[in-house]
Each structure stands twice: as structure tokens, then as C-alpha cells.
Known about the structure:
seven-stranded mixed β-sheet, five-stranded antiparallel β-sheet, binds magnesium ion
Amino acid sequence: MTALKNLMISVSGVRGIVGDGLTPDVAVKFAQAYGSTFGPGPVVVGRDSRATGDMVKYAIWSGLISVGCDVIDIGIAPTPTTQIATEKHEHVGGIIITASHNPREWNALKLLSPEGLFLSPDAGAQILRRVQNEEYRFAPWDKMGKIIPSTTAIDDHLQAIYRLPILDLEAIRKRRFKIVADCCNGAGGTILPQLFSHLHCEAIFLHPEPTGFFPRSPEPIPEHLTELSEAVVKHNADLGVAVDPDVDRLALVSEKGLPLGEEYTLAMATAFVLSQTPGDVVTNASTTRALDDIAAANNSRVHRTPVGEIHVAMKAAAIKAVMAGEGNGGVMYPPLHLGRDAMVGIALVLQLLARSQAPVSQVHAGLPQYAMVKDKISLPFGVDAKAIVARLDEQHARDEVDRTDGLKLLHANAWVHVRASNTEPIIRVMAEAPSRSEAQKLVDALKKEVQALTP
Ligand code: MG
């Protein structure tokens, strides 16, 4: 049985620090297992801009062609672009090389289903079993796969957005928005210039070179957006946008230079979508309750799932949701595809601004206002985060709780949520309340409880 050390293996794939957990050997094995399961046939491979991307890419190529899969090489591309390319009926699957918002020494494989969604937990477990048991279907010498370069994926993705009936491109173009965009030297620089140009926006870019040398911490949360905030004010822009390295998360900065908080990306996009097409919304357990208020005002309803894109996507597909996403800036618009997508998020927000004829700060102020505090506790490898959460659950047996994912303690107009991360060795603690100080108090109290249970 193959040993897998220092890796985070989850429903969304396998992550590790390059050279420590994530070696070429690991990438080859997962690619062989993936191709043995879904192949033979063409598999789309895209990557973000990380400096380690080539090492992982060539290992994956080797693994895939050894089991008879052709590689459709789309190069550096956003995660949602690779998802959309994978959906094409002639492709049997897709692999994304990205550690999303993790620090730059990390990298990861995100494995897709033939439909372009992340693998379901069952399919993910099947791949892992193949790796552990070394059950590969190697192709004979004359049936090796080929590498097929493809340069159309980014334009295909953008054209699919432009065709969405909910968008009125002329209305957006008339506003001639001035936008500052922070791409963090990730994959955003490969797609956002075309998007803004097509929408007749004047765009000023910070860090658009896809080098993988992230100039800021790559998670697009307010404390990492100081440079963007200053640039928005300096350039007198209408809006600031920040994306993470694989461009599935989007954060907004107002024309006054204030980060709106990534929860409000989904809130704004949802407010616009529900105003046009009321219906069901799907989001995860720790996303802002502003969504519930917005849905109620539009004769709509919010359904909650565990955290993780695949849970949201599967539920959205099952109930034919009109809108979906995660509060971390992950906008998912089902008529386009069931993946978090910063590009469609930008388009929906610009459409909302074009329609409202008001600055973004005013549109934001018109939404239900809550403050969220997000914190985390790092654990050494080997500590069972889920067991700690289970102990907490026992201690709160008499409180009102929601167990959709981890433990969420419910108060009259606030909540605090504690869960083991799927992607990093940490416990996340989040709270939402009408004011920041109330939310902070809830987080502090719960962190103390977690620390008391941590060996
Ligand atoms: Mg990401």
C-alpha cells in the first residue's frame, strides 16, 4: 500500500507543500488513478501561476498519458475556465493544478468530474483507493496519450458569460466604469483584461503578471487589500476588485476605498439575480445571513450545505437553484456553470451597478448589514480537528445548534460557527452579529474553548 504523508486529502483534491508532501511521485500517482477511472480519452489540464506549476504539470501529463489519456493543455488559466473547458462532451475529465489561496509554497491537484464539477465525495474516495492499492490501467506502448495544446479556453469562457440573458452588456458599457483590479500575480491576468475591455471599462491593474510570486497574502480578505484600496482612491475609480490566484474568489472595494468584505460579493450578485429571477439560493453553513434577508425580500429561499464548492454545486443542481455560491467571495451562477467564478461575479456586480445608477458604497449600504469575524486556530499535522469539534458539540448539548457542517451555535440575531477545515490543518471559527464587537466576542469565547481542548 502506498504511503501518503504530509498531504491534505479532501473532496476537493490533494494539497501539500511542494517538496515535502507534494512530490512529483504523488502527482503522477493521482493522475494515473484519475485517468484509469475516467479514461481513456482527452483530459483538460489547467494551472494557476504558481512557480511550482510546471513541476506538477509535467508529472500529471506523464501520469495521464501513461494510462492512455490525451492531455488538453490549456496552460495558465482560472479554475472556472478549466471547469468550463472540461464540460465539453468530447472531454472525459479535467485536472486543475492550484492551491487556490494557500501560500505560495503550496500546490494541489483539484480533480473534476466529466461534467466539470469537483469530484463527489464518492468519486474522490474511489480515486484515493486506486492510489492506495496501486490499481492503474497502464496503456500499451502504442496506445500512449498525446499532449494537445489548446488556446481557446479563456475566450470560450468569456463568450459563455457574454451570452447570458441576464446581462445587458450595452447598459454596462454605457457606464464606462473605471476599475482597479488586483490579480496578485495569479491567473487573473490571463482573463480580466479581455473581460474589462469587452465591457468598455477603463481598467488599472495591480500585479497582473502570472508569475506565482504573490505580492500579498493571496486570500482576498480586507486585511490584504490595503494597496488596492489606496489605488482605488488615487485613481478615482468606481470599483476595486481583488481575486485569488485561481480566480474563483472575488472581493470588492468601494469607490471610497473601503473593502466591502468578501461576504458582500455574493450578497450583491444575489441581490441582482433575485431581482430578475426569484427562486432558490444555495450557499454553505457559514455564509452571511444577509442572504436570507435578501432572499426573503425577493420571495426566495436560501438552502444551506456543508462548506465546500462541491456540496453547494450538488445541492444547486438537485433543486435547480437560480443562484449559488459561498461567502468567501465564491459566486456561482448556475445558468453559466456550477463552479465559483470571479468573472461572472464581476459581470453580475457591474450589471447591478449599471441598473442602480448609484455608487457601489450606496448599493452596499442598501443591503442588510451584518459584521462577520473569521478566525482560525492552526493545528500540528496529526491532530484530529474533527474530534475537537465533536467534543465541543458535547459541551453545547443544551444550546440551539445547526450541525450542517461542524457546529454552529445559534443566537437570536447572531451565530458562531466552528469547523475543521477540509483543506488545511486548522480549525476555523467564525461569527456573525449586527456589530463587529459582538461578533468578535463570540469568536474569542469559542477560541478559548477550542484551545482548552487542543493537546
Ligand atoms: Mg481559489
